[in-house]
Design brief:
Blueprint lengths: L3 E6 L13 H7 L2 H6 L5 E6 L18 H20 L3 E6 L5 H15 L3 E6 L20 H5 L20 E6 L4 H7 L5 E4 H7 L2 H14 L2 E7 L21 H14 L2 E7 L10 H13 L14
Length: 308
């Protein structure tokens, strides 16, 4: 059985609302490692990554915020995820804002290229994150990873993405907030956009199963990037980018169970948890529970409390 390797990524540089740097600690306090062990998996916690000396960097877009820090995290995460995969493990990156995926997916892509397997990306998020450092009006780099991964121009300050993932190998799932510049750029690519309208019309299962069948047919690796705002804020309030109309508790667990049954997931991000905005650890516990479903726990494995 594949060893799960936990990598703490206290990244707070991709946006301006403090708190995501506390995410790794919140996952540990919520019992993530033990929840995975209870399902029979080995767990190695490699602790939190730290930033070394920051590179000198600038961007023609004056709005871009904390670019050197984001470049530092990108380099550290690329190396850490590549190392974990090379050791035969399944890296689970504990974030941290979504700019961490600039590095985590790059690390998975490096490993995939080395072993000659195609890499696929499942983006579970309210947002498409398809801006570039040039197009972003907010300057928040947590809105840019998918563009970097897909090989869009405008990332001159970043190392070239190892092997950009072709559009047909990227699935945006649960999307419900895309601004006009991102929408125009997405129209030029063939990325599967399963927004909440699609999921409402066709159901949760069919679009995901179709994508997983693609991964299976190609013998691919699958990186899953799970943003807290994939979930409806009524059940997961601990995120600075709440968008109403997200997935329900039942829908999110179904997604995770389908991913487990596929046996295809090779790396995972848990991003945008801001414990400062949480209610007694409610969101952290839900995210841990979802990882449990991804790792093999079934609904009937959960004890039912009696209130009689």
């Amino acid at each position: 059985m594949t060893q799960t390797i936990l990598i703490g990524a206290p990244v707070d540089s991709g946006q301006r609302r403090p708190g995501c740097l506390m995410g790794p600690a919140a996952y540990r306090v919520a019992g993530l490692a033990q929840a995975i062990r209870d399902l029979g998996h080995g767990v190695e916690d490699r602790g939190d990554l730290t930033l070394g000396d920051l590179p000198q960097a600038d961007c023609p877009n004056p709005a871009v915020d904390q670019l050197p820090e984001t470049l530092g995290w990108t380099a550290a995460l690329t190396e850490a995820v590549d190392d974990a995969l090379s050791a035969g493990g399944m890296p689970v990156v504990l974030g941290g804002d979504h700019s961490l995926a600039l590095g985590s997916v790059a690390g998975a892509a490096l490993h995939a290229r080395r072993i000659g397997r195609p890499l696929f990306l499942l983006w579970l998020d309210a947002h498409s994150d398809f801006h570039t450092p040039i197009s972003t009006a907010s300057g928040n780099l947590h809105g840019t990873p998918v563009a970097y991964i897909a090989g869009r121009e405008g990332f001159d300050a970043f190392p070239p993405f190892p092997t950009p993932i072709p559009a047909e190998r990227i699935c945006l799932y649960g999307i419900r907030s895309v601004d006009p510049a991102e929408h125009a750029a997405l129209l030029k690519h063939d990325i599967a956009i399963n927004d909440m309208r699609v999921l409402d019309e066709h159901g949760i299962v069919a679009p995901l199963r179709a994508f997983l069948e693609q991964v299976q047919a190609a013998g691919g690796m699958l990186h899953v990037s799970l943003d807290v705002d994939f979930l409806d804020p009524s059940i997961a309030p601990a995120v600075g980018t709440t968008v109403p109309g997200g997935t329900t508790f039942r829908e999110a667990h179904l997604v995770m169970e389908l991913l487990h049954e596929s046996g295809l997931v090779t790396s995972l991000d848990l991003v945008e948890l801001n414990p400062f905005l949480d209610e007694r650890g409610r969101t952290a516990k839900l995210m841990v529970d979802l990882v449990g479903s991804l790792m093999g726990r079934k609904v009937f494995d959960r004890p039912t409390r009696s209130y009689i």
